[in-house]
Every structure is written in C-alpha cells, then in structure tokens.
Predict the 3D structure of the following.
Amino acid sequence: MPSNFGIVDLFAGPGGLGEGFASLVEDGHIPFRIGISVEKEASAHKTLTLRAFLREYLARHGALPTQYIDFHADGVLEPNWSEVDAPAWQHAIDEAHALELGTEAAKTTIDLAIEKLRASCDDTVLIGGPPCQAYSLVGRARSRGKVGYVPEEDARHYLFREYIRVLDKLRPAAFVMENVKGMLSSTVESRLVFEMLMEDLSSLGTGRGHQYELRAIRVADGIATLQEASKPSDFIVRAEMFGVPQRRHRVVIVGIRADLANKAPSAKIRVSKPVRTVNDVIGTMPSLRSGISRGMDDTAAWRREVIDAAGLLVRVHAGMEDEPLREAFSLIAGRMLEEVPRSRTGSDLPVNYGASSDELMRWLERPELRAIAQHATRGHMVSDLGRYLFAAVFGTVRGFSPKAADFPFALSPEHRNWHSGIFNDRFRVQLAGEAATTITSHISKDGHYFIHPDPLQCRSLTVREAARLQTFPDDYLFMGNRTQQYVQVGNAVPPFLARQIAELVSASIAR
C-alpha cells in the first residue's frame, strides 16, 4: 500500500506550498493530504479556507461546483459554501485556521491536530516558513529606520522557534522550511540567524531517536536531488530551474528523519523544462489599459496622455543617434491611434484555452473555467504613464530594463536623489522574453517594479498576471481587496515549484 502523509502547514499564507504538496498525484495515489494549515492574516486565511473547500469538494465530486465557477467568473456575490456542500465546508474550517503562531491558542489547536494526524495517517510532513520581513535585507533596512527598534526584541526573529517546537512535537517523516535569502546574513545578538536555526535543527531529537538529516535541493542536467550542504548558499533554490517563469531565489531546507534517510541520497526527479518566460504565461492574456489615478479616466483621456508621452519621447530623442529607440516611440505613437486597449478589465479566455500540451500551461489553465478572474488594472499617475511607456519600449528595444540614468531628464520624478543611484531601479519593466524578476509583496504598493512588457498597455501587472508568474492555477482565487491579493501573491511559494519539491520529498520517504 502506498504511504499516506498528513501535512502540517505553518505560516501558510494563501497556500502556495500546501497547494503544491496536495496536488501531487503518483500513479493515481495522492501521497500528501493537508491536516492543518495556519495563517494569521485574515484575507490570506479566507483564501486558504476556500481552497481547502475546493480540494475537498473535488475529492468528493470530481469537479468544481458550478457555484464556484460562476463566482470565479463574476466575482459579485460569494455563495454560502456550507449550503453548496456542508461536509466539504466543515472540512475546510477544520483544516484552515486563523491563528498567530506562538500563542497558547495556536499551540493547543496545533497539538490537537497533531494527535489526529498521527491516528489517521501513516506519517506526517511539516512545511512552511516564518515570515520573511525580519530576515529580508529590505525589511531589516526599514526596521533600522524605526525609532527605538531593537532587533533582539523583534518577535519575528524568533518565530522559527515555534516551527522548531512543532517539529519536535510532530516528529514528521520530513520537513520543508522556506525563507528569503536574507536570512543567511541576518544577525541577532551578533549571531547569524541561519547559524542559530541550523543548530536548533541539528540538535533536534538528540537522544530520542528522531534526529534529522538536513539536505539541500540541487539541480544538474534537469535532475533534482537532495544533497548534503557544504555552505549556507547551497540551500538556495532557484525557481527558474524548475520551469517557473520567475527568477525567485529562496532558502529551502529539507530535513529527512534519520530512520528514513537511507533513501534520500538516491532520490531524484526530473524537473520541469527551465527557461520559461514572462510572455509564455501572460502573453495571451487579454490586453488592458491602465487607469488614470487622478483626473478624468476614460479610454480617450488615457490615450491622449500616452500619445503625448510618446510624442515627448520622440522629440527628446530627435537629436540623438539612438535611431531604433526613436523609431520605436514614433511607431507606438502611431499605433496608439488604432490599437489601444479600451478596457481596464479582461475576462475572456485566451484562444485554445486549456488545450495546450505544455506542462506549465496545463498546470495554469483549467478547462472547466469560463473566464479569467482578477485581471483588472489599477490607476497610475499621468506622470508615471510616460515612465512606464519609456521603460516598456526601452526593454523591448534594448533587451534590459532601464536604470535611472537611462531615463530622459524630462521624465525625471521629483525625487531629490533620483540621479544618486538610490533610485536606480525605481522603474523596472518585466522583459517578455525572459523570466520575471522576483514577484514580492511590494507589488501591492505602486507597481513601478512590475511594468508590463507591452508598451501599448502602459501599465503594471494585474493580480492574475502576477499569480501566473507565481504559477498559481487560474482557478485559484485570492480573497480580500486588491492590495491584499497582491500581498498574498507576492508572499507565496510558487505552487508549481512546490509540487516538484513534494515529488522529491516523496521519493525520499515513501515506503
């Protein structure tokens, strides 16, 4: 009989890591089933609960409920899911919990779930990762600017200890811990956080027979394996090597319980085709225009502003020798008269949707859907439209995103340090023919780092485009307002990557 593993998912966010594990099917068998997932942020918890409901409904009925397909397409009135399928909804409530790790309420709930999993599964697996803000380089820089901020008193630095507590209580067959690269250099009390973490993990279970061998995921010639690490950077996983259309580099530590570790050295999987691009996954999405955040916002007004910006760029480059760039601006100005996208929302399914033989597209596209959801643009300041246009054209012509020094003086924002190098990457276009840069929660702020590659659309990425670059399937809905949706997408583990990590873990521990 194939093994059944119960999953404990901590710091789950919208469920990217759990989705990858729960979606793995091997010879008709589902080896991983989520027993409990924990996320304290309210909108992410709603996303997590709805996804848990859909998984259970699919297991019971073999198809998505029509009520969900309608809600996904229209997004107007959310059904009462308990009326759609009461047992499935109760299962979702029992699985997804809105709790803050480290509290007594969380401890009690998790410990009860652990006892249930032990009774119902062959073994367990722990997944997740502490919040990244206190570890990330940007997060640490922001924290240093706070009056009275003391790193040693920031509870986020120690949230990994709650992960350790659960790990010690659960004693799973394996665990997967994910975090940002910044944790490799983050320090508290003059000690490296990563060093402290590795000491805790290495000493776990000493004298009690459940120590863990710590492994790093390595990819060579399209094959992923679990290897011993010789240095901290060995634990960095590059998502683009797994067919994710994004240069997302994260620390992933895999621990295999000592009594099962004999299979780990020989475990291997073939990873998905690498070098996937932005255009591969969002190139067929409905074309949209951005909005104007201040003043009149309609297609005519937007087009006038963009044509004016293109005209300005033509004039600015008139005396320069960069003929390809000047011609590109002239071409865009002409095409804007006829080809401009008219809508700020687009739900039409792309041509041949759901019929691709490509592995990644089969993962993203769900044939039962009748619309694309959460594909709507936000408004931008008129002055930023010119910068977005310049960046998109520059990226198309030059093959890289412009730095601050590349922007014409006429487009300089009113920042005192614009030309100092501090704002060098203030505006960044995603290149159509390359993998995206890392999708982060900062996309919820203004979109300047996530400019769409098509100059005719002159905008930042939508929630759905960001979700596709993160490899969330199209039937995955993010609850909450748009800002909360962007944050959830940016903070998540790409599910397509997570599924391949799950496959590698399964190869290491399945009996």
